[in-house]
Amino acid sequence: MRPAPTPGTYPVRFGTAELLRDADRPNAWLVMVDGVAQSHVNLDDPTDLEFDYVRRIADVVDCLGEGPLDVLHVGGAACTLPRYITATRPRSRQLVFDADGELVALIREQLGLKGLKVRVGDGREGVSGRYDASADLVIVDAFERGVFAGGLATAEFTNEVARVLRPTGTYLTNVSDGPNLPFLRRFLATLATSFPHLALLAEPGVLRGRRFGNIVVAASRVELPVPDLTRRAASATYPARCVAGEDLRDLQGKARPITDADALPSPVPPKDVFGIFQPRK
Q: Diameter of the chain by CA atoms?
């Protein structure tokens, strides 16, 4: 039997990690790095998703039909989504790339990674090393100190993701942006260079530019399940909007794609915007 996790602080590659017990769940844990919330996992129930943006990613996964999936993850932390997919889609094959080897070792020791394949290394290089048409789903949720790395937002990387995905595959990313959504607009233009079908999920306040927050973006060569996503977003504990079609193209406007020559990281979040953790009642 695995020993109980030990709350505390631990040095990792990108700062200092903190492992905190969730006071409202007996075996749930929050992982933070330098005050920024990275992951929340319930070891007794992997389908219990605390963070709203993670729930939105899971909603997209749930709407992709039935059966196991071949999944690549760029960014793992405590592997909330890989654990969820393992629980909800048995026999799925998953591979996680994470650049922070010390954090991976901490999660493996304290929270366990049984049944999950996690490789330490650069996620972009990891995706580029995969075979053509070998994945059903690619999920990118990779932040360093609250910033989405610019090298993962370029047309060149997007083309690599498209190459690795099967023709009906889906690309899912979590990005963040603030007033006027300048990064999001260019990121949408970037995805459109490889994928004809896009949709995004975000809180109305974020989409109106009233506050900084997460935006989940889905991309595919085939139609996305927009009606199902719209219903799920509207009925969520914290309702979100699903934007697709002409509305999304209007949001994108005349934004230029991001390329390796002008790699653009996402904006630095306002102080403490992702560091406050208030468990749901």
A: 56
Assess if residue 16 is contained within a domain.
Answer: no
pLDDT at 210: 83
Tell me if 158 is assigned to some domain. yes
pLDDT digits (tens, 9 = 90+) for 76-113: 999 999 999 999 999 999 999 999 999 999 999 999 99
Q: Is the pTM of this model over 0.90?
A: yes
> In this structure, are residues 242 and 229 in contact, taking their beta carbons and an 8 Å threshold?
yes
Q: How far is CA 189 from the centre of its chain?
A: 19
Whether the predicted pLDDT of 265 surpasses 80: no
Nearest to 154 by CA among 47, 65, 261: 261
Beta strands in 52-146 (DSSP E): 70-74, 93-98, 117-120, 135-140, 143-144
Is the Cβ–Cβ distance between 19 and 6 less than 8 Å? yes
Structural domains of the chain, count: 1
Residues in the chain: 281
- As a whole number of angstroms, the distance between CA 46 and CA 92 comes to 15
From the DSSP assignment, how many helices (H) and strands (E) are in the chain?
A: 9, 14
Exposure of 149 by Cβ count < 10 A (0-12 exposed, 13-18 middle, 19+ buried)?
buried
Question: Which CATH number is 194's domain given?
Answer: 3.40.50.150
